[in-house]
Protein: Glutaredoxin
Amino acid sequence: MNVMDRIKAEVEGHPIVLFMKGTPQFPMCGFSSRAVQALKNAGASGFHSVNVLEDPEVRASLPRYSDWPTFPQLFINGELIGGCDITVELFDSGELARMVSEAQKAA
Structure:
């Protein structure tokens, strides 16, 4: 399976996917850490994460797949939501909690 197919399988195989540096338990950058906190505070229990530091192919190819240059990248129901700033803004507005709730109900 090529790397683009692997990324697509991750995105489509889970209702909430965060491509990040590190893991939710041990984020390796401040942006990833803030995105994880926003998701947890929005009620995302057990979202799927992909550590791009452990997979150089995914790290190199995800920006082409999503047309988004930076990490982390949050996908909900197969759709790119955005990076850290957008995730935090959605949390602050209450929109992220609604999106997370709907994605988890549909799963």
